Amino acid sequence: MTSPFEANASPAPSAASPTSVLRVRCCSSAGCLAGGAAELRQGLTTAVARRELQERVAITGVGCLGPCSQGPLLAIDPDGTLFAGVTAADADGLIAALAHRLQAVSAAEWEAPLAWRPAAGEQVDTGRPFFTRQRRVVLENCGLIDPERIEAAIERGAYEQLRHTVTDLTPAEVVDTIRRSGLRGRGGAGYPTGLKWATVAKMPGERKVVVCNADEGDPGAFMDRSVLEGDPHRVLEGMAIAAYTVGADQGFIYIRAEYKLAIVNLRRAIEQARRRHLLGAGLFGSPFGFTVELRVGAGAYVCGEETALIHSIEGQRGTPRPRPPYPAEAGVWGRPTLINNVETLANVVPILREGAEWFAAIGTEGSKGTKVFCLTGKVRRGGLVEVPMGTSLATIVSEMGEGCPDGAGLKAVQTGGPSGGCVPASLLHTSVDYESLQALGTIMGSGGMVVMDHSTDMVAIAAFFMAFCRDESCGKCVPCRAGTVQLHGLLQKHLAGDATAADLAQLEALCPMVAETSLCGLGQSAPKPVLSTLRYFREEYVARLKPGPTAAAAGR
Prior knowledge:
By secondary structure, the chain is α/β, with parallel strands linked by helices. It has 25 helices and 14 strands. The strands form three sheets. The protein has a five-stranded mixed beta sheet with strand order 2-1-3-4-5. A five-stranded mixed beta sheet has the order 11-10-14-12-13. It starts with 21 loop residues before the first strand and ends with a helix.
């Protein structure tokens, strides 16, 4: 599979010819756009037109190129040279350098390094572990294709597996392939995808529904957003294959209103696929038809929970309900409903294309395939990475991310967002897989990974995440509605230096009560950041206790 940092064109001729074309791929993800990528792209387009190079220099917008902390980013084909920190002021100089390359008369001159650097940026060494340690499956097209053009996706094989599935495979055969691949849900719970599909497929009823959960709300997480911005057709194709497999004819993508670019790209992609008869009735001459609609959420974190999401799709208040019945039995408007997140659905196409055994050979015994992570926080090289399951936290943070900047020592890594925990530096040898992270008191979650150095106050971190859960609680059940308020109050007492040993004991007793009695996953997982910091950084709590004989005992 091609990396976005490898050549994306046929081999260069021995010397430039009138037909030689150089391609400039400008990252047009939300992160780079915030840094001025739109202005950069317009500047490049203007500079190309000024030199009348439209037939020889192609300026293309693409999805995320990876090292988001260094944006705006662009890559130049055919060699895949990557530049970071490029601005609109650099546009004329870059196009002048490309014009010079197009005048090459020898192979050596053509292949020589580009004699240009951005004024305030740099050429990125793609031989660094940040790039070489990745294995891009979900992200294989991100950074390579123009997400605004369905033709670009089709050139990379989009909808070919849907055609093959509908015309050549039975639903049972697809379920078997997904089951044997070992794919587990990438939304956090890690439920076997093949088993979920098989359950919905067995449910009676003529009308079933497929839902893509794109309600990504964890602080520091932007994996799903990047896939939807950079390769929306991959997700649409995965949804259509899932629909054929379980017997659904209707699909919804539930997405956060804050993801404005992803919404625009998805709406365009849906319309493009519909016009090409890749969505709609009678696909590929078969009786199977499938339509997709967007449902834009109002930013409630709790709507990432399946039953709350269903209520929101139906136009109701987004609150969870007790289970059973599970969505597979009675979901959207009471119909059997399959719910998968963005990354899970994005894995479907490569699994069917390469085979179940290929996917199952990646990762660990219990956690197959790859996982996309957002590496953020106190780390030198942050951004979007995709690695095989089983890669250690140390490899991701210390090797790929190159550790903490400014000589600050690594203290902890938080995984799983508000539902996860903090792992101390001493345990970063741990394998990134579902079971290993759970044993440490955290979860993989959707893929957020926040790095903390020794300046980080772990009690403050716990209070931050508890405040988030308190504010995002829907209020339906007492343990979550009142428990998160009480937990946050106790943490604030510690931060203010007003806590006693009795307060610490109450904090420790209240956490499992909230976790065990809350209605949905938000309340059930809300105490994890507190419990993990108490487990690994208890001394920071004890140090804040009011002096007294019980304070010393609390530290034991």
